[in-house]
Amino acid sequence: MSALAISDGLAPIRSRFLDLLDARQTAIHADLEFVFAHPERAGPALERIMADLHKIAGTSGTLGFADLGDRARRAEYAIADLLDAPSGPATPVYMLIIDVLEAALDILDPAT
Amino acid sequence: MHILAVDDDPIILDLLTHFIEDMPEHTVTTALSVTDALGLMVKPEQPFDCFLLDIVMPGTDGIELCKILRGTDRYRTTPILMLTAMADKGHIDSAFAAGASDYITKPFELNSLKGRLSLVEQIAREQREPTSQTYATQALLGMSPDDLADEMTIDLHQPLPIYDVEGVIENSAMENYVTQLSRKSLCGSVVMAFTIRHIADLHACLSPYDFTCVVTDVSEAIADCLLPTHRLVSYAGNGTFVCVVEGAAQIDMERLVDHINLYINAMELSASDGTALNIRVCAGRPARLIWRKGDSAIDALHQAHISAEEAADRLTRDMGSIWTVSHSVA
After folding, report:
1. Which chain A residue is nearest to residue B106, measuring alpha carbons?
2. What CATH number is given for B1-128 in this structure?
3. What is the ipTM of this complex?
4. Which member of A13, A51, A76 has the closest CB to residue B11?
5. What is the DSSP string of A59-94?
């Protein structure tokens, strides 16, 4: 199968990925708002964000969104480190999550 | 091969299905959870030749599923490829310790998936061949000594798969482990090897069943004595075990070897006919992996292997020369 044919074959998967990306970025956004509002109870929300980022990172590169995947992976690891050492600085971690949300929005709605 | 892919991300399963459909030699079945996967496996008419398991899944994860599969007769040696994020060394170590054959990093590409599947297909083919060392070991461990077929043999120089010993993995998995892990991940780990002394004599004297039991018991002694460091051990053939140990700042090899030999001695190993076996190991020079990758990491394994066997030969020669030296001094 040629590279072009593979690319054609991936189109429906890419479309499904974008649908899921939309849902995932909405969920991450909601969890991040909760984290900002209730930092003392941030753990479960951060774990949910990490799980979503893990999925985004796992498939983005294969579907042509390598930059999004790299950002998601960085944010995922940063959250893991923060959960391991909760006394560490949280703001840089939240900035990395926002980075992912911005990259996702650029893909989902390039006009904005 | 008939492949079962398990991942909680439907996009990963879509991608795997899409890529594998392009390989006429393979078919794939998918499951979104371990529960679904186990449901597919109870159907005896649908055995799988290979598994692709996501490591991180909610509830029961891929590592647990790997352990479950290795605990079954049917899938004890079936190739298991773990799907994991890059640089996720903690998970990778756990996966190999649970019995994984190799891993694929996400995101993956068609060519890398193809390459990895063709490698494991070769392993799967060997599993199906009744003359293979793996089959022989499986058969040996599943039979009583009295039931052993006379023609069943174990090649002294071939690696032997060892089952149900924590921290001990197949030799091919060990090579995959050091080949695939990034330089950064392996940096600081130590490679070392231990050889059972007079292994050729033991091999000649013992039945295949007893020989396999000795190798298995010694592997357990080595793996236990290397605790509490994180360690992986494999049997590379010719009585030699290679080990990758992480987090050992300094190693007193002399004490470690003494510890292992005392441990083996406490096991009171004997042959099936009750004859006591005096099994002792010696070690080669340990080597720290510093910025090694790919072939150079494999070279480190081979060097450790050679070093341990040279140490065994040297000890035998030295023992043989004791009286000569004493005589000439006198």
Report:
1. A58
2. 3.40.50.2300
3. 0.84
4. A13
5. HHTTTT-HHHHHHHHHHHHHHHHHHHSTTS--HHHH
